[in-house]
Amino acid sequence: MAGSWQLARRTLSGPSWVRGSGPAVLNRLRDAAVVRPAFLTAAEEETLSRELEPDLRRRRYEYDHWDAFCGATIAGLSLLSPSVMRLVHTQEPGEWLELLLEPRSLYILRDSARYDFSHEILRDEESFFGELRVPRGRRISVICRSLPEEMGPGEPGQPPPAC
Length: 163
Known about the structure:
- The chain starts with a helix and ends in an 18-residue tail after the last strand.
- The radius of gyration is 17 Å and the shape is globular.
- The chain has helices spanning 2-9, 23-28, 42-58, 112-115; strands at residues 18-20, 33-36, 73-79, 83-89, 96-101, 105-110, 117-121, 128-129, 132-133, 140-145.
- The strands form 3 sheets. A 4-stranded antiparallel beta sheet has the order 1-5-4-7. A 4-stranded antiparallel beta sheet has the order 2-6-3-10.
- It has a domain at 18-57 and 71-144: Sandwich (Jelly Rolls), CATH 2.60.120.
- By secondary structure, the chain is α+β, with helices and mostly antiparallel strands.
- Its cofactor is Fe(2+).
């Protein structure tokens, strides 16, 4: 499957990890929604997946997530399977952005992309990036959130509060 995905991926032209409803939204969110493909090597992805697997087997899938106590930036590592993340403006649903998240990529959402847009990973049957079908398999997402600006790193010798 990975071979055919990579072949299909090469048919896209230009900076093709982000697409949107129009030039205005693409320009406005240029620095607020970023994809860095091949952020990890295949060996790093394998090591990280192997390290996470035992802990993930003991946990139930989290359908919802919380981040109301967290800061203005979210960064996520996408592992194992390609996917498409869709962001839709909460007040203007005609404004949207889609991010193509290849395995081993890093995505960063900050400021307006984080607070003014809903975000979701598309289900397999909806998983298209433009005309390109993006087959979904099992995926792991490792998400890091910044602390709110008013929150410091915590007391000396103590870990920072969880976000």
